[in-house]
Amino acid sequence: MSEYINPREAALMLGVSHETLRFWRYTGKFHDKIPHKKHISRRIFYKRTDVE
User: Which residues contact 12 (CB under 8 A, 6 or more apart)?
Assistant: First the structure.
């Protein structure tokens, strides 16, 4: 299992749409609880343990 997951997987785990997760990222909501960690080729990933 990968240490990092993409926003769609994170949204599924959180029970929200990926658009909601994008909005939270944009507004900074929950940044202290589920910070996005990695940017690879302009793609965002979340650490699986932060989302669980």
Answer: none
C-alpha 10/C-alpha 29 separation (Å) is: 15
CA 24 – CA 41 distance, rounded (Å): 21
Alpha carbons 38 and 44: distance in angstroms, whole number: 6
Query: What is the residue extent of each domain of the chain?
Result: 4-51
pTM of the predicted structure, to 2 decimals: 0.76
Give pLDDT tens digits for 25-52. Answer: 888 887 777 777 667 787 888 889 888 8
DSSP for 3-22, please give it: SEE-HHHHHHHHTS-HHHHH
